[in-house]
Design brief:
Strand order of the largest sheet: 6-7-8-3-9-10
CATH topology: Rossmann fold
Distance between the termini: 18 Å
Largest sheet: 6 strands, mixed
Mean pLDDT: 92
Structural class: alpha/beta
Bound molecules: adenosine-5'-triphosphate, magnesium ion
Radius of gyration: 18 Å
């Protein structure tokens, strides 16, 4: 379909088995899929179906039992740990159910952190972080530490931190799972806006089917296989 555009992520024949005592559990069973710039895919499935396992494989945080994951043209299996870490910092952003912000740092510093890790100078990183915080609606909270922010505000900071490096792909694992319904809707609208504005692809794991339906494609993970929902045209 879009074969002339380079995919931001591809997995081929991806298998993950966990060995627990004598038993081997096949959580992911020969998965194949591809994601293109600006795509948005939702992953839904029962608790324990392997959604987090899948994200961990795609992020190169755990090794598949067999099969391949590519970020652009890079086959993760062929990268050294240090190259993988550097590439992850540039190529990927993460948002989890719990924000994982650093408690001792302000919102601004938390968002600037991935740029500092890349070696961007301090002042420039803070300027970019400040712009990103404005973009997620947190102009007045830049100097707050995580404990001085509401749950929804913390997720906004986590989203800003995930996007600050302009990654090709952001992996979101239940990003609104810990929020009340109204705040969850606000965060979902924000993600929708950012996905439309940026060329960043999203993979969103969620139990919320309304949230899932915002995506262009919904993948159902069941018995180790991904079943594709109907493709929707995006206005
Ligand atoms: N390190 C591990 N060792 C053995 N089994 C594991 C390990 N990690 C996960 N599993 C098993 O793999 C399966 C998938 O787990 P995973 O965390 O990916 O599910 P999930 O779909 O994210 O669930 P939830 O919706 O509850 O977050 C589960 O049955 C789990 O018990
Ligand atoms: Mg999970």
């Amino acid at each position: 379909m879009t074969s002339n555009i380079e995919s931001v992520l591809k997995c081929q024949n991806l298998v993950k088995e966990y060995q627990v005592g004598p038993e081997s559990i096949r959580v992911l069973d020969e998965l194949d899929f591809e994601l293109y710039p600006g795509d948005w895919v939702s992953v839904v499935g029962a608790s324990g179906s392997g959604k987090t396992t899948l994200l961990n494989m795609l992020a190169g945080l755990d090794l598949p039992s067999s099969g391949h994951v590519f970020w652009g043209a890079e086959d993760l299996a062929l990268l050294t740990e240090s190259k993988l870490g550097k590439l992850r910092n540039r190529h990927l952003g993460f948002v989890y159910q719990f924000h994982h912000l650093l408690a001792e740092f302000t919102a601004l510093e938390n968002v600037a952190m991935p740029l500092w890790i890349q070696g961007v100078n301090k002042k420039q990183a803070l300027e970019q972080a400040s712009k990103m915080l404005v973009r997620v609606g947190l102009l007045k909270r830049v100097n707050h530490k995580p404990a001085e922010l509401s749950g929804g505000e913390r997720q906004r900071v986590a989203i800003a931190r995930a996007l600050i490096t302009k990654p090709a792909l952001v992996l979101l694992d239940e990003p609104t799972g810990n929020l009340d319904a109204d705040t969850a809707k606000e965060i979902q609208s924000l993600l929708q806006e950012l996905n439309a504005q940026l060329q960043t692809a999203f993979i969103v794991v969620t139990h919320d089917l309304n949230f899932a339906s915002l995506a262009k494609r919904t993948l159902h993970l069941q018995a180790g296989k991904l079943h594709l929902g109907e493709e929707k045209a995006i206005a």
